[in-house]
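Intended use. Records like the one below are meant for learning the mapping from a protein sequence to its folded structure. Do not use them to infer anything beyond what is encoded.
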Amino acid sequence: MVRATTTPPVWTLHIADTMSQASILDRLSALDTNTVSDALDFLQLKGATYGLRPLWDCPKIVGRASTVEVGVKKQTAPTKHLLTPVIDAVTTDDRILVVSGGTEGVSCWGDIVANASQMRKIRGTIIDGMSRDIDGSRDIGYPVYGRGVTMISARNRIVQLNSGLPLQVRGVTVNEGDYVIADRCGTVFVPAERIEEVLDLGERIDRRQALMVKEVLTGKPVSEVMHDTKFEAIQQNTNTPFAVPVAKAPTRNPKDASLEDQELSALFANSDTPGVSDALDKLGIAGQAYNIMPLANYEGVTVGPAFTVRYVPASSPPGSVGDFIDDVAIGDVVVIDNGGRNDCTVWGDIMTEYAGLRGIAGTVIDGVCRDVNRAIDESYPVFTTGRWMRTGKDRVQVGGVNESIGIGKVRVQPRDIVVADANGVVIVPRDRAREVAEIARKIEMSEDGIRELIAGGASIAEARGKLGYHTLQRKG
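Structure written out for the chain above:
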């Protein structure tokens, strides 16, 4: 008697493998780059990249890498358009093109290849390089992440060198088939052979951080919520359910703004940063914070006294990263000097949630932040040099609070007045605030008058001459 084999047919194995991959991608899609980056940190794996950002307001993408290396064209003979052989070879709907070797200022992506990729059901493209025709990708809803945009064509400048081989992308090795997740905070790669481990840990991190947010909402001090023991608990491999705290009204911030703080802040409530910047110029005061920009195109102005925080590299054992926020008063602006570091963040969603609950006016960082979706969706004003998903925990720690710091090449003293809007950030020395506000008001009134004259038919030269536009910002 011949015994029937129990080995499943090949097509059954293929279906099972496809279902398994779909499950993995679904689990990865439920996370964000911040959480996946934290999981990689715990496992001591490299995968988080800095500087590869969405090139339009595109959605998060999750998939598996199809690797392509490009480089400078050295031969004179005609070649196939770069990337087209790889696009044509894609047969599954889980692929993300990962392109390395781009040249600054020269495109290696455009709208024609975006349309071709969409037709092949490719999920998006990550370029360690530049894109042009980005409106074409946006108009068809095709996600593109990269260093930036340009108008210069790749033709006769950039060629495809190889595909399907390991690449170096911003210091991270990416293999064909590795997992990719990209969102507003940036791009993360996960080695395929470690994906289950990363997902398991990422899901525990996600649950623990959700619990921490709930604890903040109950009014628990953030210094207790974000204590190191809370993060250490994430690493414990346990299936024990997390206890959810009983909801109650958040504790009101006991630190009210002083009458003088309220008065000085009110002086700039109807100003904007260009007007205040002009007033600072006229008075010879350096107050424009270089390269500190808003997360979103804020319509209003954020004004408040500076609560200054200085970060330093972490000691051993590392110190605290966020306890200071319990001491920030209503209406203050948290101003953080992280030395312009872009390799780790010092602000995330728990800090955003807590700051909003306590009536803090906003946050300015000489460095990067993460969890930007919460800050943008909840309209909490954040001004930074950029965004990235990698945590600052065990990399930096608070070195000082309410002391003189530097932000965007500007000195900031505790309680100086911060004015920030869609144009950037200016710092007004507290002892000059009334003088600056008065000059800013006069400049803005003059500019309003110029606009009225122009609307009434005057030439711009006539209007400027009549109201002394050329002397508005001049020292004297």
